[in-house]
Amino acid sequence: MSNMLHVNRATFDEVMLPNYAPQSVVPVKGDGSHVWDQDGREYIDFSGGIAVNCLGHCHPALVQAIQEQSQKLWHVSNVWTNEPALRLAKKLVASTFADKVFFCNSGAEANEAALKLARRYALEKYGEQKNQIISFNQSFHGRTFFTVTAGGQAAYSDGFGPKPGAIDHATYNDLASLEALISDNTCAVIMEPMLGEGGVTPATDAFIKGVRALCDKHNALLIFDEVQTGFGRSGHLYMYQAYGVTPDILSTAKSLGGGFPIGGILTTDEIGQHLKFGTHGTTYGGNPLACAVAEAAFDIVNTAEVLQGIETRERLFRDKLQQINQKYDVFSEIRGKGLLLGAVMNQAHEGRAKEFIAASVEQGLMCLVAGPNVVRFAPSLIVEPQDIEEGFLRFDKAVARVVAGD
């Protein structure tokens, strides 16, 4: 194409708002767990686009789904429904606690819908005094003003004017702190079964069961934000299944589309009926393109082969991280479940997670942080064992460089 502009990393500073600080290299092509930049340099991807590319890059089944659907129907308004959305909803309902589904475009939109539904349910069933939402410190629920206020990191919501009210924060994995806040005026508790952005910290069994019991006691809805933990990431289709604790509303996104933007909430008939005609909506939510891709991803992820394979890969990741730690002594622990893992910096390397990421990029490896003290891994759920092997050879070199620079 003759009108293809030449762009590079410098173009970002020229034309994009400065709310991101992307790496100096620009990825242009991906295949499985491999990515290439503008200069043709190859990287192994252990970040998965922040737990999004659940089947790696350009998986043939997803490519086929988008190609086929792109020649049929891209978008209709919500005056109509469409077949891919209905098929995807049926599959999600059949494999979870839910009776009903609502589709949107992102995790933030899913949590927005979940919180609005919880407030409407409480209002109609119990009255307007029942409006308190309780979340947890260090949690992350999205960037809309409602969801960022619910999130437990005030730095993300400060400085935008008056915040939505009746939102309080307890301490994660501390049941007493929730008990001190919850009352019959609590409409919902929203929590991640494992803190993602907040440090890759799984809920303890006693905590998550205790939260469920407190919600039941006070007629509060329990919302699980499974945007990052869901859709196979933990080795279960959704992580609530690992705990045997069922939420009232569950939000899902990220991996759900395998790289194509889609989000949704799952809930019961009893609760869902309160999102009556006209109470909520989205222009693109549930569009046929997104749902066709998500359905193709679902058909692969929700199989014994893939879900059981995640446990094997988790063991490989943990073994490799422990071997590296025996050599360099940089981590205090390896946290997480399935293929959402966090290597926590020990005291000697406190606050230095970003340096490990930068060194990894130099060695041809993509990984993430989860706060200043945790290196986060969220690779493809079907990452090949030889790619794990090669990725950790590169990570070993990156760690060696950071330690040598002490």
From TrEMBL:
CDD domains: OAT_like. N(2)-acetyl-L-ornithine binds at residues 143, 282. Pfam families: Aminotran_3. It is found in: Cytoplasm. GO terms for molecular function: transaminase activity. The keyword Amino-acid biosynthesis applies. It is an enzyme of class 2 (transferase). Pyridoxal 5'-phosphate binds at residues 107-108, 140, 225-228, 283. It catalyses: N(2)-acetyl-L-ornithine + 2-oxoglutarate = N-acetyl-L-glutamate 5-semialdehyde + L-glutamate. InterPro entries: Ac/SucOrn_transaminase_bac, AcOrn/SuccOrn_fam, Aminotrans_3, Aminotrans_3_PPA_site, Class-III_PLP-dep_AT, PyrdxlP-dep_Trfase, PyrdxlP-dep_Trfase_major, PyrdxlP-dep_Trfase_small. Its main location: cytoplasm. Its EC number is 2.6.1.11. The modification N6-(pyridoxal phosphate)lysine is found at residue 254. Binds 1 pyridoxal phosphate per subunit. Its cofactor is pyridoxal 5'-phosphate. Keywords: Amino-acid biosynthesis, Aminotransferase, Arginine biosynthesis, Cytoplasm, Pyridoxal phosphate, Transferase. Pathway: Amino-acid biosynthesis; L-arginine biosynthesis; N(2)-acetyl-L-ornithine from L-glutamate: step 4/4. Belongs to the class-III pyridoxal-phosphate-dependent aminotransferase family. ArgD subfamily. May also have succinyldiaminopimelate aminotransferase activity, thus carrying out the corresponding step in lysine biosynthesis. This is Acetylornithine aminotransferase. The gene is argD.
